[in-house]
Write a structure and sequence with these properties.
The chain has 137 residues and is mainly beta. It has one helix spanning 30-36; strands at residues 4-7, 14-17, 23-27, 41-47, 52-54, 58-63, 69-74, 81-86, 92-96, 110-112, 129-130. It has one domain (4-117): Metal Binding Protein, Guanine Nucleotide Exchange Factor, Chain A. The protein binds zinc ion (2 copies).
Length: 137
């Protein structure tokens, strides 16, 4: 059993879970580009059950491409993007791979929204499943 621990840059937000991620992947959608400030977001989706967090994130809610809401949680002190909650998966909470204490635990299985990947975002031919948008759940 792997314990996933992490938090924001200043330490005000911490989280921990021993659940297996339901999904791990790199998302190249425009929302993830804006919230990460970079080419993509690398996310791990965990069940909310057994997910412990300390500190209070500030949330920004917006409508995703799908028309459903997505909430982005970031540290109000240091601004690190940490959490994502999705209307389409209400029993889960996603964390950014870079927020893990040991980011090498991240094992991406797919590339999402490659249709909006930027020309300067090199997606390696690494054998991962690639989806132009979000695969049907
Ligand atoms: Zn912080
Ligand atoms: Zn995205």
């Amino acid at each position: 059993m792997t314990t996933y621990k992490g938090g924001c840059a200043c330490g005000a937000i911490r989280y921990e879970t021993s659940a297996d991620p339901a999904l791990e992947g790199n998302c190249h959608c425009r929302d993830c580009q804006r919230s990460s400030g970079s080419a993509m977001a690398s996310i791990l989706l965990f069940p909310k059950e057994g997910f412990h967090q300390e500190g209070k994130a500030k949330y920004h809610e917006l409508k995703a491409d799908s028309g459903r809401w997505i909430r982005r949680g970031f540290c109000p002190e240091c601004g690190s993007p940490v959490f994502t909650e999705l209307e389409m998966a209400p029993d889960t909470i996603a964390v950014k791979a870079g927020s893990l204490d040991d980011p090498s635990l991240y094992k991406p299985a797919m590339q999402l929204y490659t249709s909006s990947a930027q020309p300067w975002d090199s997606i390696p031919d690494d054998g991962l499943a690639k989806f132009a948008k979000m695969p049907d759940a």
